[in-house]
Amino acid sequence: MSNAPASESYDEPYLETCCRSTLHRLLLCAATGRPTGLKDQPCLERLERLGLSKLRDDGRFVITQDGLKRHRQEIGPID
Questions:
Q1: Which pLDDT score is estimated for 2?
Q2: Nearest-5° angle of CA 71, CA 43, CA 57?
Q3: Global pTM?
Q4: Largest CA distance in the chain
């Protein structure tokens, strides 16, 4: 049992290593985004369902504000 206060409990869905890597690639692609049809397509779609990425009308995935926040928590700061 944890001694952490309830407000500090971790309740985010677990991200597999492949999805964390995809989240980082999204960050690196910035506004250019990642196209559909790549090997990480399943991860891009999962990140979209979680609200961490968004599929634009041009068929490219970009990171969302929630995705940036999750990246800072799990991967590290972007500055």
A1: 45
A2: 90
A3: 0.82
A4: 47
